[in-house]
């Protein structure tokens, strides 16, 4: 098996940590992994993207356009920005949250992201991970809610492997809250 | 088997560099933060057996690590590409003296300028200084090459450069982890003809350097770091670094000559490879360093005629330039808006730039987060060249146009790095400029590293804290003051006074980096009934303020810094009352 995915969103949403967890899940499942990220601006509210490739062989840490099997979009407009990397008919797990860039009026923000994606033949799984994380009581668990949802559509879907990887990546953090976030994400996508 | 499995880890390239240095028996490691190199030293500082430290700048770091090697313990210096410019003075002559114990310098280039002011190609420094350089492609090679580099350094008595790039340093890959090598400390022996580079001794060492290059030229023909991989003979590509990994992915069947050593080149081996392929191309990022070398040797190669020399080379560019048939179908939509990085909500720099803009000052900036003050709506920066240049460039502009209100703006860490000599110059030559040290208590842009004015070392130990005011007074700056970054009106008055002065002034503007604050301030809200929509509060580009038909402060984003409330002429902004 070989595959690739792209994670995108806004700096500060826990995208790098989510990629790290997915990479660990893949390593524990016996795959080679290559993943790339850009530091420096990640905490300054800019656009953030990571590429991830896995398989029995995996070389390039960057994907080519039209290559990714999956996209994990942490924010609606960011899904549109990085769309060229997604393969035709690929799947988008979309956090249905809109973050307007500073200084830009909300009325200029693109409407109907889900429809745009569907029109172009992509499979869209909407999940309001930000809202779920707020219900759990910590917006910082948004990334883990999304990973919960993603774990149900990804070839490696054994929740125990995922939880182990989360535990490893979040050492010292509030684990029960994050496991709850993971379970909630899973439940929401499974019930769609 | 179980043991083997547990030794396989996923590592960021920079973590793998640190691991390689640790396994290679490094004892003293020094650097200055700079994207994409910063995490190497941060990871290394977790190994308590290694002495790791942040230094005021790359030159100091390079020399501390080189000194350790001369003294008999393995040394490592880490920096970004522009940092090597600062350290290059030491590099050029350390190449003459050689080392004692191994000395390695990891330099991380940033093709595409993800977080840099230029995209210079550090491979040129290897040619320039005549020292070998290694080109790892991924995390595994980052580890093994670094480990090996110390041995190479000792075997040939030379500094060794390892050149990384953003995609090697900031990508993750699977690595096999090994044990730390036990390296006995070498005895220190005074040897002036080798280490004191007065002209008489340097002339002799110059010859040694040339002999060393000849030995290295033989070695590169044999080392397994350079590999000819023969597959389809119709096309052969000479490449190294992460581009090798891209090529394996994009075109698994082409023949590749993989350069693990970028200088000196294994000429015989490449000639042999060239004979076995019908077409030979060099794939390299930035400068045509290898292409030039091979062409000078009469080897017929293509390179810059196929691939661009500007920016980062990606798998997409390789496909477009050489394998257009591999291009996949994709969808591109136009509906999205730009999302550039901005100064954080609550950032102490915001108010300073607002005041500078109001005063129409000519602002010479420097390297750090505050370059974000360049973009609208603050739009208040005139120049940004390199570390420390704010003060000296401001002096020059003042000389060119004495009537301009010229201000130099630089961060605390940048001031320590390269701002002190130009401040001395401004005092010595009596240039009436205003220097603002934006002291946010950390090296913010690179993720918040300690420095000599934070009072903490890399390992978290307490240390002497550099006092900017005392330093300014010792230098003899006629007026030295500190001001709170959030007291906008006080700041405005001080700036106006200083700009009218006939002498240099130093203002230390204090406000902790928003990312370093432990507690969030009470968020603010606009009382609609008092708001006359003048928009002054939104004129600072705060990401927490949304301007539409009405102006709103987003509760979740607001850090409660109060700058907008200070600016509001109608006192319409107040703290959110929590029941």
How would you describe the overall organization of this protein?
The complex is a heterodimer of chains A (192) and B (579). Chain A is an alpha/beta fold. Chain A has one domain: Pyruvate-ferredoxin oxidoreductase, PFOR, domain III (Pyruvate-ferredoxin Oxidoreductase, domain 3, 3-Layer(aba) Sandwich). Chain A is 38% helix and 23% strand. Chain A contains 7 helices and 6 strands, in the order E-H-E-E-E-H-E-H-E-H-H-H-H. Chain A has a 6-stranded mixed beta sheet with strand order 2-3-1-4-5-6, sandwiched between helices. In chain A, helix 3 links the parallel strand 5 and strand 6 (123-127). In chain A, helix 1 (15-28) packs across helix 6, helix 4 packs across helix 5 (142-151) and helix 5 packs across helix 7. Chain A is globular. Chain A starts with a strand and ends with a helix. The model of chain A has no long low-confidence stretch (mean pLDDT 94). Chain B has 4 domains: 9-222, Thiamin diphosphate (ThDP)-binding fold, Pyr/PP domains (Rossmann fold, 3-Layer(aba) Sandwich); 227-326, Rossmann fold (3-Layer(aba) Sandwich); 349-516, 3-Layer(aba) Sandwich (Rossmann fold), CATH 3.40.50.970; 524-575, Alpha-Beta Plaits. A 7-stranded mixed beta sheet of chain B has the order 3-2-4-5-7-6-12. Chain B is globular. The termini of chain B are far apart. Mean pLDDT of chain B is 96; it is low at 1-5. Chains A and B meet through helix 1, strand 2, helix 2 and strand 5 of A and strand 1, strand 8, helix 11, helix 14 and strand 20 of B.
Write a compact overview of the structure shown:
The complex is a heterodimer of chains A (192) and B (579). Chain A is α/β, with parallel strands linked by helices.
Name of the top-level CATH class of the largest domain in chain B: Alpha Beta
Total number of strands of chain A: 6
- Give the rounded overall mean pLDDT of chain A: 94
Class of secondary structure makeup of chain A: alpha/beta
Number of strands of chain B: 22
Strand order of the largest sheet of chain A: 2-3-1-4-5-6
Kindly state the percentage of residues in helix of chain B.
25-40%
Low-confidence stretches of chain B: 1-5
Number of individual domains of chain B? 4
- Summarize the main sheet of chain A: 6 strands, mixed
């Amino acid at each position: 098996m070989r595959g690739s995915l792209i994670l995108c969103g806004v700096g500060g949403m826990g995208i790098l940590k989510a990629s790290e967890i997915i990479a660990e899940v893949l390593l524990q499942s016996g795959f080679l992994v290559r993943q790339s990220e850009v530091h420096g601006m990640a905490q300054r509210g800019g656009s953030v993207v990571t590429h991830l490739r896995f398989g029995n062989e995996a070389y390039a840490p960057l994907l080519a356009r039209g290559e990714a099997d999956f996209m994990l979009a942490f924010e609606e407009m960011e899904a549109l920005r990085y769309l060229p990397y997604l393969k035709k008919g690929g799947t988008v797990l979309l956090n249905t949250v809109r973050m307007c860039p500073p200084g830009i009026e909300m009325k200029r923000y693109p409407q109907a992201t889900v429809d745009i994606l569907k029109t172009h033949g992509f499979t869209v799984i909407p999940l309001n991970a930000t809202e779920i994380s707020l219900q759990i009581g910590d917006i910082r668990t948004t990334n883990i809610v999304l990973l919960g949802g993603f774990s149900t559509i990804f070839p490696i879907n054994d929740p125990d492997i995922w939880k182990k990887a989360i535990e490893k990546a979040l050492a010292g953090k509030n684990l029960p809250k994050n496991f709850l976030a993971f379970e909630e994400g899973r439940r929401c996508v499974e019930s769609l | 088997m179980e043991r083997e499995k547990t030794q396989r880890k996923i590592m960021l390239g920079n973590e793998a560099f640190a691991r390689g240095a640790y396994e290679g028996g490094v004892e003293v490691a020094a650097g200055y933060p700079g994207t994409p190199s910063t995490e190497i030293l941060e990871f290394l500082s977790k190994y308590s057996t290694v002495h790791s430290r942040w230094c005021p700048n790359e030159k100091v770091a390079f020399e501390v690590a080189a000194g350790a090697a001369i003294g008999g313990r393995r040394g490592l210096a880490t920096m970004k590409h522009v940092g090597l410019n600062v350290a290059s003075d030491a590099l050029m002559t350390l190449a003459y003296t050689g080392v004692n114990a191994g000395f390695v310098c990891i330099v991380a280039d940033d093709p595409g300028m993800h977080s840099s002011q230029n995209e210079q190609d550090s491979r040129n420094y290897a040619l320039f200084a005549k020292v070998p350089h290694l080109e790892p492609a991924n995390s595994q090679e980052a580890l093994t090459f670094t480990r090996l580099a110390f041995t190479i350094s000792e075997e040939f008595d030379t500094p060794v450069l390892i050149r990384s790039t953003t995609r090697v340093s900031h990508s993750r890959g699977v690595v096999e982890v090994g044990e730390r090598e036990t390296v006995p400390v070498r005895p220190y022996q005074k040897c002036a003809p080798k280490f004191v580079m007065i002209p008489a001794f340097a002339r002799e060492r110059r010859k040694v350097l040339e002999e060393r290059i000849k030995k290295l030229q033989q070695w590169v023909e044999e080392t397994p770091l350079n590999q000819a991989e023969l597959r389809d003979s119709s096309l052969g590509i000479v490449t190294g670094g992460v581009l090798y990994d891209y090529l394996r992915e994009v075109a698994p069947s082409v023949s590749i000559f993989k350069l693990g050593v970028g200088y000196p080149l294994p000429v015989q081996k490449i000639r042999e490879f060239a004979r076995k392929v019908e077409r030979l191309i060099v794939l390299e990022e930035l400068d045509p360093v290898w292409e030039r070398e091979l062409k000078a040797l009469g080897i017929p190669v293509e390179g810059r005629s196929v691939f661009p020399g500007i920016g980062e080379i990606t798998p997409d560019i390789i496909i477009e330039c050489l394998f257009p048939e591999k291009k996949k179908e994709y969808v591109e939509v136009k509906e999205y808006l730009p999302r550039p990085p901005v100064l954080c909500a609550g950032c102490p720099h915001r108010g300073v730039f607002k005041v500078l803009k109001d005063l129409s000052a000519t602002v010479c900036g420097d390297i750090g987060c505050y370059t974000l003050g360049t973009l609208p709506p603050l739009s208040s920066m005139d120049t940004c060249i390199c570390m420390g240049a704010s003060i000296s460039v401001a002096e020059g502009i003042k000389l060119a146009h004495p009537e301009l209100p010229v201000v130099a703006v630089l961060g605390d860490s940048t001031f320590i790095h390269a701002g002190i000599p130009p401040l001395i110059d401004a005092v010595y030559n009596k240039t009436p400029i205003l220097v603002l040290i934006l002291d946010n208590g950390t090296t913010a842009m690179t993720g918040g590293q300690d420095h000599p004015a934070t009072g903490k070392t890399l390992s978290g130990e307490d240390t002497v804290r550099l006092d900017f005011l005392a330093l300014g007074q010792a230098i003899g700056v006629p007026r030295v003051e500190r001001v709170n970054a959030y007291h906008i009106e006080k700041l405005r008055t001080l700036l106006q006074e200083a700009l009218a002065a006939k002498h240099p002034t130093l203002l230390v503007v204090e406000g902790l980096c928003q990312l370093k604050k432990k507690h969030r301030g009470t968020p603010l809200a606009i009382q609609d009934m008092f708001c006359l929509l003048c928009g002054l509060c939104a004129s600072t580009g705060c990401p927490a303020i949304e301007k539409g038909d009405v102006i709103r402060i987003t509760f979740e984003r607001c850090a409660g810094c109060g700058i907008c409330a200070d600016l509001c002429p109608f006192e319409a902004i107040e703290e959110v009352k929590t029941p």
